[in-house]
Specification:
2 strands, elongated, alpha+beta
Length: 74
């Protein structure tokens, strides 16, 4: 996924001033097919952002430096 590629690129960054420094990132991703009956509880943009935020929380709980995603579809 795009988020996974970005996560790997961030981790691969090297810094001349501090070569031993490692930067990591966690991402929460939500994909919603709004024509799906399962998406009926998503009424506002904030509801959609909450889905991604919940996934970010899962990624951090899962050990950080990970991507957690949810897909709501038919």
């Amino acid at each position: 996924s795009l988020a996974e590629n970005i996560r790997k690129a961030i981790m691969a960054l090297k810094f001349k001033e501090q070569p031993s420094l490692v930067v990591t990132a966690s991402f929460g991703v939500a994909t919603v097919h709004f024509n799906s009956p399962k998406a009926r509880n998503i009424h506002q943009f904030d509801d959609f952002v909450k889905l991604a935020d919940d996934e970010l929380y899962k990624a951090k709980l899962g050990g950080r430096n990970t991507v957690s995603a949810t897909v709501i579809q038919q």
